[in-house]
Write a structure and sequence with these properties.
Blueprint lengths: L3 E5 L4 H11 L6 E5 L5 E5 L7 E5 L6 H17 L4 E6 L18 H12 L3 E5 L14 E4 L2 H11 L4 E5 L5 H11 L2 E11 L2 E8 L6 E9 L3 H12 L4 E9 L5 H7 L5 E4 L6 H4 L4 E4 L2 H13 L9
Parallel strand pairs: 1-4, 4-5, 5-6, 6-7, 8-9, 8-11, 11-12, 12-13, 13-14
Antiparallel strand pairs: 2-3, 9-10
Length: 312
């Protein structure tokens, strides 16, 4: 443990502190602030020579600021002779732009991968990538953890029988099927048409949801348009109640207003992105901590132990 040191940017310092508390290791000292014109200024205040260094930083809003912070921290640590630098990214921003969906558009997730490697990252630890193939964009090891153990444990403790797990679109059907199998629940899929980014329309529910407690499962909730439309469609098909479990609480734009005024009973999210207190005040958002999963991944990576058990 003496050779391990953890630093944090400004995106989610509370998360980093919980990870350090779990590991019994102090948070590394560094300065991450701004010049008057907005440029990011980094200064590492601990000796990292020949140390195994982990930087905890979600690339959530403000996405570009947090990404640049991470890149500059990696560069600073590389130039300070750290032995290995691991970027711990609970939420990997730009992951939704993982392929060309139209002519003359970038594959932004690949560019972010290139930037991280060029800066000097030697390993990536992240959670519930929007698309699993993003791991292939890297030429360094990527540990893609899953919040499934925490979510399944929560569902088993709080929901008893007559459940149906619902995927909000066809792309998430495989994830929903895996949850349904482990929970011994039924499976349903919402047929969704997306007319523009952040704008979706739920069209039909495939599967039996009548007189069941429905749990919508997704990897993230952004503007909450998909969730609220899906909840309405599921209730129209006779479901008793509708809940949602989404790993990354992006919650941008009208998300909070939509959730508070929706027919969703509650939405369960992970703490990969900090949730503002005013969002929690609406009473429909509950946060599960995944800091122990990341703490285990960090210590096992440092020791060279297997992290396979954390993926199931």
């Amino acid at each position: 443990m003496d050779e391990l040191i953890i630093f944090s940017g400004n995106s989610n310092p509370g998360f980093a502190k919980k990870v350090c508390d779990y590991l019994g290791s102090p948070l590394g000292k560094c300065m991450v602030n701004r010049f008057s014109d907005g440029e990011v200024r980094i200064e590492i205040n601990d000796n990292v020579r020949l140390r195994d260094v982990f930087i905890i930083q979600s690339t959530c809003a403000p996405v570009n600021d947090n990404l640049v912070e991470l890149l500059l921290m990696i560069d600073a640590l590389k130039r300070a002779s750290a032995t290995r630098i691991t970027a711990v990214m609970p939420y990997y921003g730009y992951a939704r732009q993982d392929k060309k969906v139209a002519p003359r558009v970038p594959i932004s997730a690949k560019l972010v991968a290139d930037l991280l490697q060029k800066a000097g990252a030697k390993r990536i630890i992240t959670m519930d990538l929007h698309a699993g193939q993003i791991q292939g964009y890297f030429d360094i090891p990527v540990d893609n953890l899953f919040a499934a153990p925490k979510i399944i444990e929560y569902i088993k403790e709080n929901f008893k029988g007559n459940l149906v797990i619902v995927s909000p679109d066809a792309g998430g059907a495989e994830r929903a099927r895996a949850f349904a199998k482990r929970l011994n629940a039924n499976l349903a899929v919402v047929d969704k048409r997306r007319d523009a980014p952040n704008i979706s329309q739920a069209m039909a529910v495939i599967g039996d949801v009548a007189d069941k407690v429905a749990i919508i499962l997704d990897d993230m909730v952004d503007t909450a348009g998909t969730l609220t439309e899906a909840a309405h469609a599921i209730l129209d098909k006779g479901a008793r109640e509708v809940y949602a479990c989404c790993v990354h609480p992006v919650l941008s734009g009208p998300a909070v207003d939509r959730i508070c005024s929706s027919e969703l009973r509650s939405i369960i999210v992970a703490d990969t992105i900090p949730v503002k207190p005013e969002i929690l005040e609406c009473g429909k958002v509950e946060v599960l901590s995944v800091t122990e999963l990341f703490g285990e991944a960090i210590i096992r990576s440092h020791r060279g132990d297997s992290v396979t058990s954390l993926f199931v």
